[in-house]
Amino acid sequence: MSRKGRNFETQQMEVGKTTGAILTAVLAVLSLTFLFPIILVLMNSFKSKLFISDAPFQLPKAGTYVGLTNYVEGIRKTGLFPAFGRSLFITVASVAVIILFTSMTAWFLTRVKSVFTNILYYVFVFAMIVPFQMVMFTMSKTANDLYLNSMYGLVLLYLGFGAGQAVFLFCGFVKAIPLEIEEAAMIDGCSPVQTYFHVVFPMLRPTAVTVAILNAMWIWNDYLLPSLILPQEKGTIPMVIQNLKGGYGSIDMGAMMAMLVLAIFPIIVFYLSCQKYIIKGVAAGAVKG
Amino acid sequence: MQKSMKRYFPIFVLPTLAAFTVAFLYPFIIGIYLSFTEFTTVKDASWVGISNYKKIFMDRNFINALIFTVKFTIVSVVSINTLGFLLAYVLTRGIKGTNLFRTVFFMPNLIGGIVLGYVWQLLLNGILARFGVTLSFSAKYGFWGLVILMNWQLIGYMMIIYIAGLQNVPGEMIEAARIDGATRFQILKQIMIPMVMPSFTICLFLTLTNSFKLFDQNLALTAGGPGRQTSMLALDIYSTFYGRVGWEGVGQAKATVFFLMVAVISLTQLTLTRRKEVEN
Question: Which Pfam families match (chain A) (predicted)?
């Protein structure tokens, strides 16, 4: 891929120097426009809540600057740090469980050919196009009956919801692995479980990274499912942000700005530290449905 | 190998299948049944035939949400894909700062819908304040606000997929065309766009389904206001379930209709654009 990329950039339609400089300038302005909303929130997070809605574009100055008041107040009001811990646990545990179990399922479904495995595969694929609203009400009642109203229950539900896409992606990859390697392992006396963990799973790593990234992005930011499952006072980050909006639509704008900054900050740090994998994973996950 | 593996079904498939059944399969099947009943807690369901479905189409909120969603989806899909492709095209020309730009344009996609909704509420209300109004003043503002937000979030995502597609166009093919005297525009139209059709298929699928199913951004940016005028389908179904006692059955029927629409739209789109793909 990288070779192809270079090939593409050196041989093909490169633009001239002047055009290149103009394009760079245009894109630089566009980049700033892209960043502007986030900068605006950051700037307002240091202003008194009374001066945010009315004049969001004014820089904080003597009369409006309040230091870290909004942060202190917001954290106290929302319990953002425990929410951060919960979001982190739910995301990491769900992604780990999804990768482990759906890759095993995908291998089984691809290798064992029967009417049943075939049907099962299509049921998983089918689940990908069903919108959440279709199962929202019945699922939350079922979860309630089974005592799944906790972080741990939520991990199980994410495995169920993530299964469709993850099985689909893993199956696509397993099909491309030559059967001979696994057969050799089995002839040498490996059980299917050993074969899977020693031989197959290591080969699935690129797809596992893609599945991990797509699911982490979804689960970390998901609002609706946790809001239906978890008690209001033990929410995730998106729930905490949404709950800041009080009854009748009144919002403490100061706390809101500060909490938005704290919600966005870890995402940006994470993104910048492994953007290579994220961008590659997203591109690789975009296989035809 | 198959035979020895079959016995391992409980280890390999059962955990996934159990979670899948609890989270999706069982609720899905029960959901279809419940759409023909009247209920408040699932267990007290009584059969009412298709009366829930009849109610849907007399519900002005639902019709309004449907029209709003369709308009929103059309505008978003066209604008996001045009701009995403344009950026991908420019960012594969080997200009300075390509990597930095790519990083910045993709970033909004990682921020969740609820957070994005409130970020844009601040910005858009700030601009509208100069004209003495807010987002909740008119459905028009809410509509365009959502379109802008959606573009901001998804352009970078689509750009990444288009870039991957453009980089797979074989260099020799373009070289050959250029030697034959093709112009830049001809190369784009005759070679690049046809070769990028698989990326186009997936981008269209992603933007179409994400726009049609939009919920978080809608809830955070406008919450459907003014009144219910900017409620999209997903939000309307949510309000029917949780905001209107005795209408759970209608909510489930709405959800079923919603599911059928998403299925028909995405399958039609996949078949149509697939047909245009060239073998490579």
Answer: BPD_transp_1
Q: What is the CATH number of the domain that holds A141?
A: 1.10.3720.10
A72 touches chain B (CB under 8 A): no
ipTM of the complex: 0.90
Residue A231 lies inside a defined structural domain of this protein: no
Q: How far apart are CA A157 and CA A143, in angstroms?
A: 8
| Beta-carbon pairs below 8 A across chains A and B | 320
> What is the residue range of B47's domain?
2-51
Which of B22, B108, B160 has the CB atom closest to A156's CB atom?
Answer: B22
Q: Could B167 and A13 be called an inter-chain contact, meaning their C-beta atoms sit closer than 8 Å?
A: no
- How distant is the Cα of B242 from the closest Cα of chain A, in angstroms? 9
Provide the β-strand partners of residue B38: B46
Mean pLDDT of B138-157: 95
pLDDT in tens, A44-70: 999 988 888 778 888 888 778 888 889
Q: Tell me what percent of the residues of chain B surpass a pLDDT of 70.
A: 99
Check whether A5 has a pLDDT greater than 50: no
Q: What is the mean pLDDT of chain A?
A: 88
Chain A residues with CB-CB distance to B30 below 8 A: 138, 142
